[in-house]
Amino acid sequence: MDYSVIIIGSGPAGLSSAVYSARAGKSTLVIEKEYEGTGQIALSSQVDNYLGYHGISGYDLGEHFREHALALGVEIKTATVTSIAKADDGFEVRIKVRKKEEVLKAENIVYAAGAKHRLLGVEGEAEFAGKGVSYCATCDGSFFKGKNVAVVGGGDTALDDALYMSSLASQVYLIHRRDTFRGSFTALEKLKKRENVKIITPAQFVAIKGKERLESIELNTGEEIELDGVFIAVGMVPETDLLADLVERDDMGYIKAGEDCRTSAPAIYVAGDVRSKALRQVVTAVADGANAINSLLTDEK
User: Fold this and answer.
1) 267, 247, 266: which is closest to 255 by C-alpha?
2) Angstrom distance (rounded) from CA 253 to CA 274
3) What is the reported pTM?
4) What residue ranges define each of the domains in the chain, with the CATH number in brackets?
5) What is the maximum alpha-carbon separation in the chain?
6) pLDDT tens across 49-92, in order?
7) On the CB side of 155, how many CA atoms lie within 13 Å of its CA?
8) Residue 104 phi, psi (nearest 5)
9) How distant, in Å, are the alpha carbons of 6, 28, 90 from that of 2?
């Protein structure tokens, strides 16, 4: 057997799992898709809600996590995982490194591949990501206190983000492509009563504009709105297809698992944004990593 534990993903959840696995004396490999990658946190210009690291950049926080794992002897390999299959004595993880394919074996899998934000796909979105464009109001909302922002989307996340931002921002525009919202009726009614919230429907973004930072948005209605920030809340896409035939997933594609991070398949554990849960933050990802290894060790007794 090559490894006791193979961890797919090098974000906070994966690296937390690695730290706990290494401390338990397990031979541990982390497979990262991007060289020296630390997940979505690296895109955050500033993190204010992770205990003990007030005001740190997401990149620097991710580097602290990575250095911690490496200091404990965790092996990290840059590769693309192409398949995970059950074997008689564990699992076979097929990877591709450049054009070369390898097959690794593990007794246990911790799956922490994360989720990606669904993009609007409009002009300026990529250019101003982290420069006024955010995909997490609870992460970045405090940076826009007293400023003008827009929230895009029609589900519960968008409505909750708009409510949250209405307590911080001077003006909040809630923009949705349809007249009706999929999110909570109660939340929508609360928003309608907020004096600093303006709901614009039906409307779609045409472009996000600015120079060094976001300055305005253009809608398909012809309206252009000057803004300091935009929070895009049009959904997440979990990276779970590799486990589609091995574990149970919910209707949104997230892997079904409780706080113990056990999946429906023995010896496969899940951590971070791929798990079905209410809050997806650095702190919950790190907690998942610890819980996954704790469950693994308990199951081996």
Assistant:
1) 247
2) 8
3) 0.75
4) 3-116+236-300 (3.50.50.60), 119-232 (3.50.50.60)
5) 64
6) 899 998 888 889 999 999 999 999 999 999 999 999 999 889 99
7) 6
8) -110, 155
9) 9, 9, 10
